[in-house]
Amino acid sequence: MHRYRSHTCGDLRKTDALQPTRLSGWCHRIRDHGGVLFIDLRDHYGITQCVVDPDSGAFALAEKLRSEWVVRIDGLVRQRPAGTENTEMPTGLVEVYVTEIEVLGAAAELPLPVFGDQNYPEDMRLRYRFLDLRREKLHNNIMLRGRVIDSLRARMKGQGFFEFQTPILTASSPEGARDFLVPSRLHPGKFYALPQAPQQFKQLLMTAGFDRYFQIAPCFRDEDLRADRSLEFYQLDIEMSFVTQEDIFATVEPVLRGVFEEFGEGFAVTPQFPRIPYAETMLKYGTDKPDLRNPLVIVDVTEEFSREDVSFNAFKNVIKQGGVVRAIPATGAGAQPRSFFDKLNDWARGEGAAGLGYVIFEGEADALVGKGPIAKFLPAGVQQAIAAKAGLKSGDAVFFACDKPDRAAKLAGAARLRIGSELKLSKTGVFELCWIVDFPMYEWNEDEKRIDFSHNPFSMPNYDADAFIALDGADKDAILGINAFQYDVVCNGFELSSGAIRNHRPDIMRKAFALAGYDETVLEEKFGGMYRAFHYGAPPHGGIAPGVDRIVMLLAGEENLREIVAFPMNQRGEDLLLGAPSDVTAKQLRELSIKLNMPEK
């Protein structure tokens, strides 16, 4: 028999009865039933109940065992007595009558128990992550992550993609988030950077003629952490040559849909992802990451509040200064108590707004009457026009956000989510995916009074090439009206990925940067490798990079990435288990020609 086990703790079945067995694992739970000890022995594969009675030669040692001791157990498999079976466990029809026990690893008193689902402070869970990972839910999440990655990899290879590996030590990029810098010992005063994404490398692979690239790529960004963003993460990095935006969609949709169907435990998955233009999603949902499970749709009612017979000057004065009014419907909210409306107003003030005006509609369908604090300022015809535009009926309410367009959209979008949650309007048991398309290429930088890139400077403009190159750099309105071949894929309010058809033409790239106030030297100095490569015959190409961590987080039903990553950091970017970031010795700093200039405390 093997030194440690003949079976795992998930193997034994009724057909193994009366057979000798050897198991090794952790003492998950120990129970004393009238002098008979029951040990639930756990390993990676499952749990087996082991029984030690006073007649067993192992009983004296069994009495000394404690939770999470690692033991080897020898014994005889037998069927459980009638009425004691556990049909919820794969091994629940049998137990092991113990004849011998060997302690392989004793455990000190546990700082947090493995058995059960008690909540513990995050810092304790991360400091003792090796114990936390033994808990069933987290253990299953990590295994789910591995299966999802296997599925993604198989689906990509099934479409003719080849897996590449790109460098981890690379050059610092001036775009995007802050880089993590790595000092060079061989080149004093110079630094490598960890890749924010393999963006330039995968585009260079297309220029080199490899056609279909993918990688489960590690990425590093020195950003502030939040529940769905960490310092290091993995993405399904994809790039394709000789493709249009439609080709990207046709390739990626079945991969994402297939993974959500495979691991979604019966949740419905969007059969065909709708394409929502950026301007439309900002109006209807107040965000470019819409949660389509929520049925509420924001509408613009600036025109209605601008009418001469409307006397609500608080909004009219904002409109005169370039503001807008967004209406957020609240289906069935008319039945809510006054406290519901007061709490929403208080919440809006906490978000920095003046509040949320509202109207509650009553009466017949063709003669709705509005009630509420601002209803008296709105003539009947205006009330009915608002109700018709927002699709409201008797018993519904509508809230209003009034501000400059960006701030009004942000407040209305947040209010939409809050109202949908409070009224329990959102669908459950679904994964609602969509594409956000037609992102603006440029935006107006109000602080610096200049045109700047809106998102990715290397996206191909969705504009006739000759007309783009001929654009007058002083024509602000024309420039701000240009969209890019740029797209996001969103699921249940989480951005899974951004992507684009790339700007592979040096002449268009020079013009794109010139319109944002950059000359060719910026391209040569900051992006020289890729820019030079495009002068030697670059194919049209495009790609995308869905975030593996967020996909797994959604599939696991978690709200924090730390629940699906084996060894995450805390909210301050600290690894409490191994102690990173840590101090280094003066010798190490001298070898790197680095002298610290610490901030004053």
Automatic annotation (TrEMBL):
Binding site for ATP: R221, D222, E223, E495, G547, V548, D549, R550
Entry keywords, A to Z: Aminoacyl-tRNA synthetase, ATP-binding, Cytoplasm, Ligase, Nucleotide-binding, Protein biosynthesis
PROSITE patterns per the UniProt record, alphabetical: AA_TRNA_LIGASE_II
Subcellular locations according to the entry: Cytoplasm
Spans annotated as Aspartate: 199-202
E.C. designation(s): 6.1.1.23
Enzyme class, first EC level, given as a word: ligase
Cellular component GO terms held in the UniProt record: cytoplasm
Job description of the protein: Aspartyl-tRNA synthetase with relaxed tRNA specificity since it is able to aspartylate not only its cognate tRNA(Asp) but also tRNA(Asn). Reaction proceeds in two steps: L-aspartate is first activated by ATP to form Asp-AMP and then transferred to the acceptor end of tRNA(Asp/Asn).
Family: Belongs to the class-II aminoacyl-tRNA synthetase family. Type 1 subfamily.
HAMAP family cross-referenced by the UniProt entry: Asp_tRNA_synth_type1 (MF_00044)
Protein name: Aspartate--tRNA(Asp/Asn) ligase
Record gene name: aspS
